[in-house]
Amino acid sequence: MKKINIGLLGFGTVGCGMVKILLENREVIESRLGASLALKWVADLDLERDRGVIVDASLLTTDAEMVIDDPEVDIVAELIGGYEPAKSFILRAIENGKHVVTANKALLAVHGHEIFSAASQRGVEVGFEASVGGGIPLIRSIKEGLVANHIQSLFGILNGTANYILTKMTDQRIPFSEVLKEAQALGYAEADPTFDIEGIDTAHKLTILLAIAYGVPIDFDAVYTEGISKVTPLDIKFIKEFGYRIKLLAISKDDGEAVEARVHPTLIPDDSMLANVNEAYNALYMKGDAVGNVMLYGAGAGMMPTGSAVVSDLVDVARNILRGAVGRVPSVGYQPAGTKARRIKSIEELKTEYYFRFSAEDRPGVLSKISGILGKHQISIKSVHQKGRDLVGAVPIVTITHEAKEAAVRMALSEIDQFEVVKDKTVLIRIEDWR
Fold this sequence. Notes:
Elements: E1 3-9, H1 13-24, H2 26-33, E2 36-43, E3 60-61, H3 64-69, E4 75-78, H4 86-95, E5 99-102, H5 105-122, E6 126-127, H6 138-145, E7 151-157, H7 160-172, H8 176-186, H9 194-197, H10 200-214, E8 224-225, H11 233-241, E9 244-253, E10 262-269, E11 281-288, E12 292-299, H12 303-323, E13 351-361, H13 366-376, E14 381-386, E15 394-401, E16 404-405, H14 406-416, E17 427-431
Parallel strand pairs: 1-2, 1-4, 2-3, 4-5, 5-6, 8-10, 10-17
Antiparallel strand pairs: 7-9, 7-11, 9-10, 11-12, 13-15, 13-16, 13-17, 14-15
């Protein structure tokens, strides 16, 4: 049986998952591949820590460059994460004529064009299924399963940490700061959770999805990004009364002329499938012009789910090696001639419904004054409630609007927040309501 040699860079959580699956599921992998995937090297700076996975000591090394330069290594699995040295290692592996598998969404979202171009020129493959959605086969589903479709829209819950926090805040009414500490204690959130809670990790993943769904050049800076750190139990309470749940969504829509690309807290109907994706789970809800609505759901992170996705890429690349085929499926799903720049809409162009919470003094005429400013900017109110009339000082006025333009909303709220009777900055949360 032919042997395909793997050189692993990074023996952390995902690397352990990959190794564990290769060892424990060796027979089923070989029966499906027709060859063996053999660990040639496992490189990491820390070789002393007990990872719960037994690896032959002769395979362990701290020298990543030696692994990359080994002529017997067929595929380099980069599971270090971050920008450097991961980028340099990947480019060096490609230059050496080796195929690459990576889970590094941050690197691909920022430097993906350079990496994919280098791979194309050198005639090698780059697999990155594990970079978006953990164990859920999102990338392969779009590139291959939905290849006949124009993807009209994407709505994704793509960060388990943020989804866990919002689930706990919604179901148990726990403040953000307390849930974050709990998520860190459970290992869902990093010591520095900025990428997760501020939407950056989700934006990295949306950047990759945009490339494979629409064939647009990778441009992380084009994705509008907001996080969840300002979501409060008070807003969640009111949101539930209106029949919504709040999720951190990656959203893209293609109207034929331009593409939306945004990440932000979003209200969605509480009876929708996506609204009921809770805890640390991920999901992607898509609409194709031929297939209609499709939702993929599962574990979006973790040692074994993400390791499963890495091994799926190793098998895919190995199949191409066995057949002497390269580029059978282009890295981002589009042939070079089919890849073209598309205009990405600015957030000011967005048209959607909105949730506002004003904090105003309980005086006659306040609501009328607020409504007047909204009306002046062509913002029509669908529903309004004044809460806490028994409170001393500012009381919340909660409003749901009909569809309005973001630019007009921003101008209106800027005026309203200058009123003497308005005691705090207005809370704005966008709504996607497909009921």
